[in-house]
Structure prediction request, 227 residues.
Amino acid sequence: MKNVSRKIPAFILLLVLILSASACRKLDEDGGYYDEETKTYKYVRPTNRGVKKSALQVFSPIPGKTQQVYGIVSRIEDDAKSFWLKIDERKPYMILAERLSGGNRNDETKELKIQLRHVSPLGSVTRRGDFRKKWRDHVVANLENQMVNRQVLVEIDYEEKARKLWGICFVVIQTKDGDRARNINLWMVTQGLSYYFIDRGKAVNDNAFRNAQLVAQRNKAGLWKYQ
Prediction:
């Protein structure tokens, strides 16, 4: 009797190769590992661990649809208008990061890069050279004091062409009347750290941003004292 060989489907062979290649890797509690070569996180045996009850429900970024996310701010970028947000849980991080470019995500540390909307401290400066550098350092230091190592809520929007996130950031501050949420983007305009920018469209609270800029101008705060 002749031996009849059965053709193994290609996808099964691929699965076997993947499992074999990852067999010697130590998987984390989420059932995957960080690949140094591709700089991405790879699931191997995804677990059914759920998201913490305190976390918001997240969805894959969609152009034109705003969503809210919680996280810890890890650092401020040198452009003085973007920051890195660390997401505690792997599952929501992967959902949020799946459509972002490599430069706007860090799968190893579960961090997302977010650009602050309606502000641009360096775009507000016309002077060059040493003043521009000092101004950048000044703004970054102020943002670090307000945001770094603090839990924040961010309203994010997705830009499909650039594969990045824009956001409005809120941080809880203590006042004599109790805790309240501070809109960091609006606060920057009030402090004169940036002009109000509408190049990507007006803010939802456009009047608040315009009034904040008038207050900063009247008080000669930040940039306005150099006008």
